[in-house]
Write a structure and sequence with these properties.
Layout (H helix, E strand, L loop, with lengths): L2 H9 L1 H8 L1 H29 L9 H29 L1 H5 L2 H26 L2 H4 L3 H25 L2
Helix pairs in contact: 2-4, 3-4, 3-8, 6-8
Length: 158
C-alpha cells in the first residue's frame, strides 16, 4: 500500500543528493541525535517527577509546563531530521521491520503523551494517588527508550 510512495521518495533527486553527500548525512544524523537528547531530557524531567524523583521543589504541573517548549522543540527537530534521513534511504526504511515498529511506537507514544500523560501531569497531585503517576512515568520512559533503540537498530540491522 505504501510501497509506491516510498518508491517515489527513492526517485527524488533531493534524496539521492542527500544519500551521496557523506558530510550532509553525518550532520543530519548528529542533529537527529542532539534533538533526541533534548527531547528525551524534557521527557525524563517530567517522568522522573512522576516517579517521585527529580525536581520535587516544584509542582508536577509546573515541571511539565517548563519542560514543554523543550519537548516540542526537540520533537519538531527530530521530525525534521528524521524526514531527511528517510529521504536519504526510503527503500531501506520501507523494508526495515525496525523502522515500522519505531513508527508504530511513535504513534502510540504521541497519543499516550498528548492524552494520558498530559492529563496526569495537569491533575491535582493530592488526588492523583501514589501509583498512577509512577505507572504513567514508567510507560512513558519505556516507550520513548524503545523508540530510540529501534531507531538505532534500523542502522545496525540493515
Amino acid at each position: 500500500m505504501l510501497l509506491p510512495f516510498f518508491q517515489w521518495l527513492e526517485s527524488l533527486r533531493f534524496g539521492v543528493a542527500v544519500d551521496e553527500s557523506g558530510y550532509f548525512v553525518a550532520a543530519v544524523n548528529v542533529a537527529h541525535l542532539l534533538s533526541l537528547t533534548v527531547f528525551l531530557g524534557a521527557v525524563l524531567m517530567v517522568d522522573l517527577r512522576l516517579l517521585g524523583r527529580g525536581i520535587r521543589e516544584q509542582p508536577l504541573a509546573q515541571v511539565a509546563l517548563d519542560a514543554q517548549p523543550w519537548l516540542i522543540g526537540g520533537f519538531l527537530a527530530m521530525l525534521a531530521t528524521g524526514l531527511l534521513q528517510l529521504l536519504a534511504t526510503p527503500m531501506k526504511a520501507y523494508y526495515s521491520d525496525q523502522f515500522w515498529l519505531k513508527m508504530y511506537l511513535v504513534l502510540f507514544a504521541l497519543a499516550f503523551t498528548l492524552t494520558v500523560r498530559r492529563k496526569v501531569t495537569q491533575a491535582d497531585e493530592t488526588r492523583l494517588g501514589p501509583v498512577w503517576g509512577k505507572v504513567v512515568g514508567l510507560i512513558s520512559i519505556a516507550v520513548w527508550v524503545m523508540i530510540a533503540v529501534q531507531g538505532r537498530l534500523i542502522g545496525m540491522l540493515q
